[in-house]
UniProtKB/TrEMBL annotation:
Domain Methyltransferase: 63-174
Superkingdom of source: Eukaryota
InterPro entries: Methyltranfer_dom, SAM-dependent_MTases_sf
Coiled-coil region: none
Protein's name according to its UniProt entry: Methyltransferase domain-containing protein
Pfam families: Methyltransf_31
Gene3D superfamilies assigned: Vaccinia Virus protein VP39
Length: 292
């Protein structure tokens, strides 16, 4: 079930891709079928690297049946996986547009709703036992992170868990000049939009300040374009993501208005990651809402 309007964002066309044009929405990635496909493939890579879909101590509760929110669910790959694995639990996905939601058949224990989580999560107080959110490093401003965590605290039941996943994108290990140029460019773009590029390193403090008790901070190093097939697939996702924001990157670096020039740069990044054995540090924060 989808409620509210089809979208809470206007869209604009840049380089043939659809991007959010609503000033209240900071999300940088495009809103189209290609990006949805990328996120579905990304889910498979992350599940392999993280050795599962969740870290919160909730397996027995999920098997018995609880209420779960996937915040910023996108095309709902995680939501669907979890709903199929835990049919006794009910899963709710929230995103800023129905264009992200999967079409066709969905598990009976899933429903979706349109909302801007940075402003309001459209559920009553103390609704959920577990809230999952990942990869909003390019989607929430400093203020929006605080608002979102405040809303999560409100809709989570006392004793419930939140689980946040964010990569330390701007401080990958064993990089070189080509990847660093990418990072410097996007870091400037994020800073100009008041988006914290190092949110992965801030999760502990922000979550604590919102009133949660932090239970675990897990750092998982992920190989980029080396080591094994998972490393190659992570590189493909990394490259695909940067290709998808080329029109925005070219606003910072006019040389990248040329698709060919940008492709050459991304190819060089891939070779650099392989040669230097680059790693992406993935941060997971598991926290609990106090019982009182």
């Amino acid at each position: 079930m989808v409620k509210a309007e089809d979208t809470v964002s206007e869209l604009q066309i840049l380089g043939g891709r659809k991007y959010h044009a609503n000033s209240k929405i900071a999300y940088l990635m495009p809103e189209d079928a290609d990006e949805a496909d990328r996120l579905k493939k990304q889910h498979i890579v992350l599940t392999y690297n993280l050795q599962g879909n969740f870290k919160a101590p909730l397996r027995e509760a999920l098997e018995e049946g609880i209420a779960v929110l996937d915040s910023g669910c996108g095309p709902a790959a995680w939501t669907f996986d979890m709903a199929k694995e835990f049919p006794n639990s009910k899963f709710y996905g929230v995103d800023i547009t129905t264009q992200a939601f999967p079409e066709g058949a969905k598990p009976d224990n899933c429903e979706f709703q349109v909302a801007n989580i940075a402003e309001h999560i459209p559920y009553p107080d103390n609704t959920f036992d577990y809230i999952h959110q990942r990869l909003l490093v390019m989607g929430l401003t400093h203020e929006s992170w605080d608002n979102t965590l405040k809303e999560m605290f409100r809709v989570l039941k006392p004793g419930g868990y939140i689980e946040l996943h964010e990569p330390n994108l701007m401080r990958m290990r064993n990089t070189g000049p080509f990847i660093e140029q990418l990072h410097n460019t996007i870091s400037g773009m994020l800073k100009s939009r008041q988006i914290p590029s190092n949110i992965a390193l801030q999760l502990d403090d922000r979550v604590s300040n919102a009133g949660f008790d932090v239970e675990r901070i897990i750092m998982t190093p992920m190989a980029v374009n080396h080591k094994n097939k998972a490393g190659e697939l992570l590189w493909e996702d990394y490259r695909h993501a940067y290709v998808n924001i080329r029109p925005l990157m070219s606003m910072q670096n006019p040389d990248w208005e040329s698709v060919e020039a940008y492709e050459l740069h991304m190819n060089a990044c891939g070779e650099e990651a392989k040669e230097n054995k680059t790693f992406l540090d993935w941060h997971t924060c598991v926290a609990q809402k106090p019982l009182e």
